Amino acid sequence: GGGFESSTHKRRDGHRLDLIAATKHDRFAREDYLRIQQQGLRLAREGLRWHLVETSPGQYNFSSALPMIREAHETETQVIWDLCHFGWPDHLDLFKPDFVFSLARYGAAFAKWLSQETDEPGFFVPINEISFFSWAAGDEGSMFPFVTRRAFELKTQLVRGAVEAREAIW
């Protein structure tokens, strides 16, 4: 399968990345899917931009995913949805228990919404690259939240979030 970069983490200066917008994948999803199909691929990993979906706690607007959903359907591309690609809403603290349960609620809400938008089965990755993320953000300190010596704590939190999201989606 192919994949489209969808990181949404914050830089040290506080600026939030949005690589779907930066690469214009949301505008050119059809062309992107057709390009991967030229390589013999019919599966794509897509990222939701959680910070855009949940700007207020518990209030979800999944419209930012619609271009990818529609073009995936039109091009017969199967999508695996990445719920958290290094970014989350500003109202959440990655290390607090509410992060885990917020991820679960968000995942369940997206799965339900997606089932109303398409007849395709939903495939989900709750959190992208847990081991790398734990190291980069919790040990090495090169990614938001830029902490060190907390990698194990962060990995435990991320695994809890992934498990709770999986259960909520089921």
Describe this structure in words.
The protein is of the alpha/beta class. It is built from 7 helices and 4 strands; from the N terminus they run βααβααβαβαα. Strands 1-2-3-4 form a 4-stranded parallel beta sheet. It is globular. The two termini are 24 Å apart. The mean pLDDT is 96.
Question: In a nutshell, what does this entry contain?
Answer:
By secondary structure, the chain is α/β, with parallel strands linked by helices.
Overall shape: it is: globular
Mean pLDDT: 96
Percentage beta strand: 5-15%
Strand order of the largest sheet: 1-2-3-4
Based on DSSP secondary structure assignment, what is the total number of beta strands?
Answer: 4
Q: What string, H for helix and E for strand, traces the elements in order?
A: EHHEHHEHEHH
Instruction: State the share of residues found in helices, binned by percent.
Output: 40-55%
- What's the alpha carbon Rg, rounded to whole Å? 16 Å
Low-confidence parts: none
Count of discrete alpha- or pi-helical segments spanning 4 or more residues: 7
Comma- or semicolon-separated keywords:
170 residues; alpha/beta; 4-stranded parallel β-sheet
